[in-house]
């Protein structure tokens, strides 16, 4: 089941499943928002 999250910067990130979404979100944060790290639980809490 696809999961989505919208970063506070406005970028929408779509994952094929929870693991994919967490990996893509953490990669987006590392590349675009250094210093802003979210745990897996925090990312999944914000996902829809």
Automatic annotation (TrEMBL):
It holds the Pfam family DUF1059. It comes from the Bacteria. This is DUF1059 domain-containing protein. It comes from Saccharothrix coeruleofusca.
